[in-house]
């Protein structure tokens, strides 16, 4: 069955967390408050094989495993617009926007055959899925696929570095496994969040000082923006802690 889709530039999908490639995260380090988002999946999930390839797997005491997707992300509350969304409701960095935005609504962290599920707009989104829109998916295959293939290739290329980071965190923060197990038990996939500074340290990034200097004003901006909001207390706490870490790395 053919699936139609056309972006209407309504801007409704430009809110909340934005998954990024490592390259895109560093390119936009002066724009997005960055974090590492861990999303665990239990064995048997249809996305388990792909997540295992792009992320890492963790052996549990009961002879089971978790596959964990670990993604550098723009870490902002779901009620906040993307920092790149202009007042005209259009992307202010359209010519240089992250690959994640170019590939939307497709999602290369998921097997191609399951992409049709992503073509149903969320409530309030104004995507055009009428027959007047282009056919973008047919017989379990993406039709216009250049952006999808490019993003998938980058994700595969960066997977070894992601696993280096995972090994580091599992060694020095072993209690994270308990948090991941708890997150995996939720009906809707839960998340565990770690700092970008831990990624820079674990991977011995030679540009860590520069990236930290770019991140500091962004983190401090979001510290102010989330201050005093009880529903955003977790975000606020993280921004404060990460600003301190980036201050240290920037010296």
From TrEMBL:
It holds the Pfam family CxxCxxCC. InterPro entries: Puta_zinc/iron-chelating_dom. This is YkgJ family cysteine cluster protein. It comes from Iodobacter violaceini.
